[in-house]
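input
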Amino acid sequence: MFSLFTLGLDLLWRLAALDFLSLVAAGAFAIGVAHLAGHRVGAADDLRLRASRHHGKQAERQQ
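output
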């Protein structure tokens, strides 16, 4: 039979493991959000670059 001390240590160990897993999950979520945000910023930069090239070609045609 387990003593009260052993049960307390087991409970603390399980809580620490759950806390660690929640930290890992939160970190993975934050990295994923930052990764997606980076893609969005990159896509917006690409659109701006394409638009500026398009306007540059129009200006060349008008001259």
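quick obs: The radius of gyration is 27 Å.
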